[in-house]
Amino acid sequence: MNQREINQAEWRNSDNWSVGFYFSKKDTRSWVPKQIPWMGWTLNLGNRTGALWMIGFLIGTPLFVILVLAATCPKP
């Protein structure tokens, strides 16, 4: 079984899905199609790069909002 087949088998395994989140250490992809593929992509949190993307989103988004608000607030 090659890696592409392993990735597909892992993606199809419902044990790797929980409340819309995907976690598989055997799947080498960072981004995978959602369970309903026309809905887009999701992160593989079992992959180091996928986990780093999630941390980046969790830290980067609030930081971006704070910076934008700080830049647009009127100065006293």
Report how far apart the termini are.
Answer: 65 Å
The shape is elongated
Report the average pLDDT across residues.
93
Strand order of the largest sheet: 1-2
- Spans of 5+ residues with little confidence (pLDDT < 50)? none
Main beta-sheet annotation: 2 strands, antiparallel
Q: How many H/I helices?
A: 2
Quickly give the structural class. Answer: alpha+beta
Structural domains: how many: 1
**Secondary-structure element order, N to C:** HEEEEH
Task: Describe the overall structure.
With 76 residues, the protein is α+β, with helices and mostly antiparallel strands. Helix content is 46%, strand content 13%. It has a two-stranded antiparallel ribbon with strand order 1-2. A two-stranded antiparallel ribbon has the order 3-4. The longest helix is centred in the last third of the chain and has 25 residues, at 48-72. The chain is elongated and about 65 Å long. 13% of the residues are buried.
